[in-house]
Specification:
mainly beta, 7-stranded mixed β-sheet, 4-stranded antiparallel β-sheet, 62% strand, elongated
């Protein structure tokens, strides 16, 4: 099976920075897009940033210029550097990965995986 384990959330004052990490582990054949979504209380989950295996990135307009996504493909890890944080960035942040994994018969199957979520709280 495959697991995504996140770390790096916490409490920070407005204007501060945090860096999230998410490592994928398990019977992985390849990883396509990795990224981050977030969900604030009472709101739908929304895209924050994604990065393809080739390095193409996509950001939500609300975080452009403040957040930077990066990957270490050798470590199956994606990062989110968050600078100039605002109270409206407060949310549970979820790691996402589009992974092709090995099955018990050594075939491969592709599906989306999610991390357990990490809380980011920005105080004003």
């Amino acid at each position: 099976q495959v697991q995504l384990v996140e770390s790096g959330g916490g409490l920070v004052q407005a204007g501060g920075s945090l860096k999230l990490s998410c490592a994928a582990s398990g019977s992985i054949f390849s990883i396509n897009t990795m990224g981050w979504y977030r969900q604030a209380p009472g709101k739908q989950r929304e895209l924050v940033a994604t990065m393809t295996s080739g390095g193409s990135t996509n950001y939500a307009d609300s975080v452009k210029g403040r957040f930077t996504i990066s990957r270490d493909n050798a470590k199956n890890t994606v990062y989110l550097q968050m600078n100039s944080l605002k109270p409206e960035d407060t949310a549970v942040y979820y790691c996402y990965a589009d992974i092709q994994r090995f099955t018990i018969t050594s075939a491969t199957i592709r599906r989306n995986y999610w991390g357990q979520g990490t809380q980011v709280t920005v105080s004003s």
